[in-house]
Design brief:
Number of strands: 9
Distance between the termini: 50 Å
Strand order of the largest sheet: 2-5-6-9-8-7
Number of domains: 1
CATH topology: Thrombin, subunit H
Helix content: 10-25%
Order of helices and strands: EEEEEEEEEH
Largest sheet: 6 strands, antiparallel, barrel
Strand content: 35-45%
Structural class: alpha+beta
Low-confidence stretches: 1-17
Number of helices: 1
Length: 151
């Protein structure tokens, strides 16, 4: 992938995301399941990094990073929820965007992850967090809209 190029990068108006996505800023740890190859040395390595999940849904997440992983890469994703709980799941990189935001395209660099599997307890905890956060964000948007209509 050329620098700044994206693979299957959904455009700003892409409606292929069927689920409601919730904006968040959650610390996450990413670890590759299979080794990657360092192009400079030819040696194999496992990537482990601290990143931020910027939006989530029950079936996936957007991870903001300036060093996206290749499409198809399987990872272990560990997300820290605000209540101190941690959710861990296996995931697959669906698309990646390496270029920085511009005036014409303000989307952040990073990659989209499809959740593959995790423990039932983890998933229930995560799903509850997504539902509560989505409900709160929708209520805030409705309150904002009703205040604007009164102004």
């Amino acid at each position: 992938m050329a620098d700044g190029e994206s693979v299957s990068d959904p455009g700003p108006g892409d409606d292929s995301k069927r689920e409601i996505r919730t904006n968040v800023s959650l610390p996450a740890r990413i670890t590759t399941v299979s080794p990657l190859l360092d192009p400079a040395t030819g040696k194999s390595f496992y990537r482990a990094s601290e990143e931020l999940c910027e939006n989530i849904s029950p079936s996936g997440a957007f991870v903001m990073t300036r060093e996206p992983l290749p499409q198809g890469e399987r990872i272990l994703l560990e997300i820290d929820l605000p209540d101190g709980e941690e959710v861990a799941t296996l995931g697959r990189v669906c698309w990646a965007r390496a270029r920085p935001p511009t005036a014409d395209d303000p989307r952040l660099p990073g990659f989209g992850i499809e959740f593959l599997e995790g423990s039932r307890k983890n998933y229930d905890l995560f799903e509850r967090y997504v539902e509560e956060t989505t409900r709160e964000q929708l209520a805030e948007a409705e309150n904002s809209d009703s205040k604007e209509g009164q102004g």
